[in-house]
Amino acid sequence: MQAGEAVTDAGVKQYAIERLAKLLRHPDDLVYKADEVRRKLAQEKLLIDAQLSTDVRRQFDDVQEGIELLYSTRGQIDRVKTDMQQVDRLCNQAQSYLTNFDRIQKISIANRNFVRTNEFYLQFSEFHEQYTMVEQMLHDAKTHFEQGDFNLLRLHYFLHKLEDFRSRALGFSGVNDADSEQTLQQMFGGLDGLVGEFEAFLWHVAGSIYDLALRGRSNVLVQLLKVIEAEESADRAQEREKEGAGLARRQSVMATAALARGPRKERHVKHYRQKLLDLLRTLVASRVDGFVKHEASGLDGITEVTGFVVDELTFVAEAVAPAFPPNYFIFDAFVDEYHRAVVKNAEALTAGELEGGSILTLLRWIREYYAAMRKELGIPRDRLRPPLLEGREDQLAQEYLEIAAGKIREWIGNLMRTETASFVARQDAPTMAEDGLYITNASVFLFEIVNQNIDVVTQAQRAKLLCDLVTECNKVFQDVGKQWRDLLESEKTKQIETPETVAEGLVDYTMALANEQIRAVVQAETIRDETGDRLSRSQQERFKSELSQTMDIFMNVAEAATQTLADIVFSDLQPITSALYSVDWYQDDLLQPVIETLKDYCQDFQDHLDKYLYTRLMQDLLSRFALSYIDAVAGKVRFYKGQTTEKLNLELHRATKFFKQHMDSTAVLETLNVVRILVSLIDSTPTMIFLEFFSVKKQYPDLPLALVEDILSKRDDLDKQQLKNILESLRQKSKGDTGSSLAKQRTLFSSLKSYPPLGSTATSRFF
């Protein structure tokens, strides 16, 4: 109760806040509108309080009037009770006022017995004629059943008179007159057979209720129901007589009435109404069973059952139900029976192990069935009991998910064994697409089974199951991605360390693998956009998020492939990059073989690698090229002012010219700027080093101080004292920078292998 009140109070407060927000939209409204709003709300409160007060007063008046009526009713009941007691007392006293009451009573009984005897004599003499007439009427009704030329009410009326006469005749015979009772039994012996024939015909009519309604013979249905109601009324009268047999006053009344009507043999209770409902249950079950068996063709056509049930119930509502009395609630009864029959058939069809497609068919049908019953007939799901398949939709969905995930994992596992074996063997050149890109077509096969499952789940309209399916696929894709990354690392290592032991073509196959990941990303993106837009908002976000994760998995493999290509390229360049700033570098042109090697590789990349990946790879190669000049500072090198900077500037010019042929010029200049910083630190005068360093720090906050120390310490123009003073000044100035947000920014300097980024625990190399 307290929780409910808290929720109500919260709702009221929220409403008040929203209303005030509408009334006071601007800060100035607090000054100019606050008083007006306060007066307006006060007037509304007064009106509401007055209305509530009036309503409460009216409720109290109604309650008081009801209590007064109850008191007055109690008094009237007491007066009626007193009057009835007075009447009973006067009746008892009246008998003592009549001196010949016993004699008068005997004469009255004798007169009534004479009248009854005369009536029985006439009925006995007419019984055979009446029996023959009813028998002929029943025969004619059977003969003309198809034409509907019969009257059930008239037939039942005369048959009921014959039964009533037999009951009274057998009651008159008494238990002591065995001969009379035997004679009556012989006389009425054929009546039971006639009654049985009538009942058989009656239930035949009831069994033809659909056909009669279809032909517009609602009058026959009305006659049928009136006969059943008449028998039900007689059954209730019989039950009341049994229930009242033990009451003394009621016994007295019944005895007096029996004197007037004569004794009657106890009637057999027929329960026609219950028999009718049982017959309708059997009839409905037979119709549903027949449709499922002959029209729906088993589980594959179970979705057709929905339309059949809706059509049947629509026909019942329009043509059958109007003939029934309201207290039958016959449409609800038909709904229950049709639903039970559908449930029974569904359970029979789903007995045993189900395949994934059959499970989805069932799930789609269950959703469509409940939706159609609600939309077409206005029957909510909660009204239909028991639930279809015992409400096991979630369990079935989980079973399908396990089956589908197992098949997908098996399919992709077989595919991966084939693809990885081909990748390692590299017997033939990879397949080339029309645009010249290397491909493997693995993504086509990969998404074939995935798309099949997504399509069938989408058709089943199970959004949550669809999201769960993509989640399971992502688990498989994660394993696939790990296999590819591990294989790339393994093959790259063998290619670099023991190239004579591996097959040729690793670069081509790596490009094909990278391109295939992009194709997989495109397919995943298509599914995300096309299928996701058809889902409800509640599931759309999760579905698109799962597919975005799928795309990330493939992109990670593509990135690993491009990194492998870059590693292979720079493994070939490693003998040259390790000689930077050495004697050979000063004496020879080591850049030319680097550019020629890059030219060969980059031409292949440009021709056979996806454009997006090619751009990413070129940026990676450029970054590694620039960093190789910085990392080489950590070696045993020496910088000669003028000579080193002149050679570096020349090589930067040539490298810039080469990379601009493959990349955006702005990106090339920005990346190679880190090497120009190296040139500026080598070329700066001792007095300008401090300013140069902090000018660079503004652009590259993560510039390692250890790198600057290495550069300065390897200059040939600085003596030890100068170097010590400069480094001490730089360290003192840089002490407060390690924890700043600016220092935490990451640029290309954070990727250096030989120098930790600014803020790490590494110590200075000097002093």
What does this structure look like?
- With 767 residues, the protein is mainly α.
- It is 76% helix and 1% strand.
- It has helices at 2-23, 29-32, 34-97, 101-143, 152-173, 178-187, 189-207, 209-214, 218-243, 248-261, 272-294, 304-320, 330-349, 356-377, 393-425, 442-459, 463-497, 506-532, 537-577, 583-587, 591-608, 611-631, 643-660, 665-683, 689-699, 705-713, 720-734; strands at 431-432, 438-439.
- A two-stranded antiparallel sheet has the order 1-2.
- Helix 23 (643-660) packs antiparallel against helix 24.
- 25% of the residues are buried.
- The model is unreliable at 1-7, 246-261 and 759-767 (pLDDT under 50).
Name a few traits of the molecule.
disordered N terminus, 767 residues, two-stranded antiparallel ribbon, mainly alpha
SSE inventory with pairings:
Layout: H1 2-23, H2 29-32, H3 34-97, H4 101-143, H5 152-173, H6 178-187, H7 189-207, H8 209-214, H9 218-243, H10 248-261, H11 272-294, H12 304-320, H13 330-349, H14 356-377, H15 393-425, E1 431-432, E2 438-439, H16 442-459, H17 463-497, H18 506-532, H19 537-577, H20 583-587, H21 591-608, H22 611-631, H23 643-660, H24 665-683, H25 689-699, H26 705-713, H27 720-734
Antiparallel strand pairs: 1-2
Helix pairs in contact: 4-5, 4-7, 5-6, 5-7, 11-13, 12-13, 12-14, 14-15, 15-16, 15-17, 16-17, 16-18, 17-19, 18-19, 19-21, 19-22, 22-24, 23-24, 26-27
Radius of gyration: 50 Å
How far is the first residue's CA from the last residue's CA? 76 Å
| Low-confidence region ranges | 1-7, 246-261, 759-767
Beta-strand residue fraction: under 5%
Globally, the shape reads elongated
* Number of continuous helical runs: 27
The topology string of helices and strands comes to HHHHHHHHHHHHHHHEEHHHHHHHHHHHH
Query: What is the makeup of the main sheet?
Result: 2 strands, antiparallel
Oligomeric form of this entry?
A: single chain
